[in-house]
Specification:
By secondary structure, the chain is of the alpha/beta class. Helices cover 34% and strands 18% of the residues. Strands 1, 2, 3, 4, 5, 6 and 7 form a seven-stranded mixed sheet that branches. The chain starts with a strand and ends with a helix. The chain binds guanosine-5'-triphosphate and magnesium ion. GO terms for molecular function: ATP hydrolysis activity; GTP binding.
């Protein structure tokens, strides 16, 4: 099964590692100086979604294999990484060079972490009054240059081979873009984005190649923006301008620092914090929480004033949700028994029972047949039929939607025994 990976990118000191730490189990080093991170750090984040156990009144039996489910809110794992800070000219070797762009090759989506406070310059050094609008366009053009330069320096050879082998445009580009984890379908979609009227590949000049690279970037590396450090004083006036220029659809306001702080207090038993919300409980007579030391309480009140009351949440969970939506990922629950929603465990096994144990994320448009191939591999030949809730049969070519995403692959007895 494909596991989706999102990557935090941006200039040094924007808060990429802080964001990663805030949402995942990673413990990446954080520092207020550029290039704290050299090698990428990896973690697993959990995105809250509505679990069907609530709809079917089975929340008390819900037992996810990965993540957890609390009262019908299910935390689904999503892989996340950060990379070294990128500086202008990274594509031609500036800063830590473009070897670090290579670390992005496996990412499915980029979270551009932007320091909205204007307290770090283009290279990530402490300053005042820097305009973060500069960072937004620049990153995109840097990634464009990375891909374009790699392609353009070989373009004569690519063109000659394209003509000699009588390949299609998509085939020729797919061979070039495979290093970025792109397949033929992805390349074809990128070409479709360019619209009709593209000349034959052998006639493309620099302008057309750049246009195709732009379309490829949008298709292969969709990007959302986390406007970070919203807890700092100058951020709100910058945020206003950024929203006016770019619109709200791909932007989330975040304070990675506030989220790290809240989760830490939660794990230490001082507060009960519900991730993604403005709510937390403090100690009282009944809840068993520890009373906060006065200085920590003052800090918590500051986080409340500057972030939670003002913006409604720290934004990091909302960023993950936007990542999922942008990637058009939907959850699929694979169960053995379509009535009880249990997996029953393998025959004779002592495996823990429970309902809705398996949940995977698939891209909208995935068919039942494709999912079956991914989940069962060679064993798919043992599948007699596929059914969804109510015992409704599904065809292999049916697309998975939020209406039919509880699925049972009915295997032959022979296959069940083997399992
Ligand atoms: N006030 C505030 N500071 C933050 C926030 N997020 C990160 N920082 C601070 O910004 C500085 C840089 O954070 P990092 O997470 O190391 O930044 P990075 O983008 O990973 O930096 P490099 O690894 O050098 O590229 C640290 O001092 C953090 O504490 C935030 O939301 N608010
Ligand atoms: Mg870092």
């Amino acid at each position: 099964m494909k596991e989706y990976l999102v990557a935090c990118v941006g200039k040094p000191s924007a808060g990429k590692s802080s964001f990663l730490n805030a949402v995942s189990d990673a413990a990446a080093k954080v520092g207020n100086f550029p290039f704290t991170t050299i090698k990428p750090n990896h973690g697993v984040a959990y995105v809250p979604i509505d679990c069907p156990c609530k709809r079917f009144n089975k929340s008390d039996q819900c037992a996810p294999k990965h993540g957890k489910c609390i009262n019908g809110t299910r935390m689904v794992p999503l892989k996340i990484m950060d990379v070294a800070g990128l500086v202008p000219g990274a594509s031609t070797g500036e800063g830590l060079g473009n070897q670090f762009l290579d670390d992005l090759r496996h990412a499915d989506l980029l979270i551009h972490v932007v320091d909205s406070s204007g307290t770090t310059d283009a290279g990530g050094k402490v300053t005042i009054g820097y305009d973060p609008i500069n960072d937004i366009d620049w990153l995109q053009s840097e990634i464009h240059s990375w891909i374009f330069n790699n392609l353009w320096k070989k373009w004569d050879g690519i063109r000659r081979r394209h003509v000699a082998t009588a390949s299609s445009t998509a085939e020729t580009l797919a061979a070039q873009f495979s290093g970025y984890g792109a397949n033929l379908v992805c390349v074809q979609r990128s070409l479709d984005r360019c619209g009709a009227g593209l000349d034959k590949l052998e006639e493309w000049g620099e302008e057309t190649v750049r246009k195709v690279v732009d379309a490829f970037l949008e298709e292969r590396f969709p990007t959302i923006i986390a406007l970070n450090k919203i807890d700092l004083p100058d951020s709100d006036k910058n945020i206003d301008r950024i929203f006016r220029k770019y619109g709200p659809t791909k932007i989330v306001l975040t304070s990675a620092l506030a989220e790290m702080f809240l989760r830490k207090l939660h794990s230490q038993g001082f507060i009960n914090y519900i991730e993604g919300t403005e709510f937390f409980d403090l100690a009282d007579d009944k809840n068993g929480l520890k009373p906060l030391p006065p200085t920590t309480l003052t800090r918590l009140e500051k986080v409340q004033d500057l972030v939670l009351f003002r913006y409604g949440n720290t934004g990091v969970t909302q960023t993950l949700k936007l990542a999922m939506d942008t990637l058009q990922l939907i959850p699929v629950y694979s169960v053995r028994n379509i009535t009880s929603f249990g997996d029953g465990g393998a025959a004779g096994s002592k495996e823990k029972t429970g309902v809705f144990r398996d949940c995977v994320l698939v891209k909208k448009g995935t068919t039942m047949g494709e999912l079956m191939g991914d989940m069962l591999g060679d064993s798919k030949k043992f599948c007699q039929y596929i059914e969804t809730v109510g015992g409704v049969r599904c065809g292999e070519s049916d697309e998975i939607t939020l209406e039919n995403n509880i699925i049972s692959f009915k295997l032959t007895q022979e296959a069940v025994k083997k399992d």
